[in-house]
Amino acid sequence: MNITGMGETLLDSMAEECTLIEPHTVQTPTGGYGQAWSDSVTFNAVIRKDNTLPARVAEKQGVKELYTVVVPKGFPFRYHSVFRRHKDGLTYRVTSNIADNEAPERSSIQVGAVTAERWDTPNA
């Protein structure tokens, strides 16, 4: 699962298969409208939980679990993009902008990183 563009690296060996999921509007049986989700792009990402002391304290105070997600540079994540990890079906929502944390052009590892929270997809 190559995400760095450099052959197999340690970072690549930690990558997991994921799918971006997109919301769309559907008509409900009662004549109203609701939201449904459908699979979009499949990609590889390194997902790691933030286990720092401030993050653990925040979790105890009710903040959702926080993660760092590393993907190939230029991946089309937007703020509040939602994706599902294949191995366990867990869903995550992006809480930052990928453009704020991408490797510089001269870097040999061309990746970007976002923060994300565990998120239960409504009506999925």
Notes on the structure:
The protein has helices at 10-13, 53-60, and strands spanning 16-27, 33-49, 66-72, 82-85, 91-94, 111-118. A six-stranded antiparallel β-barrel has the order 1-2-3-6-5-4. The mean pLDDT is 88. It has two helices and six strands; from the N terminus they run αββαββββ. A hairpin with a 5-residue loop joins strand 4 and strand 5. It is mostly beta strands. Helix content is 10%, strand content 42%. The longest helix is centred in the middle third of the chain and has 8 residues, at 53-60. The chain has a single domain, classed as Bacteriophage SPP1 head-tail adaptor protein (Thrombin, subunit H, Beta Barrel), CATH 2.40.10.270.
Write the layout of secondary structure elements.
Blueprint: H1 10-13, E1 16-27, E2 33-49, H2 53-60, E3 66-72, E4 82-85, E5 91-94, E6 111-118
Antiparallel strand pairs: 1-2, 1-4, 2-3, 3-6, 4-5, 5-6
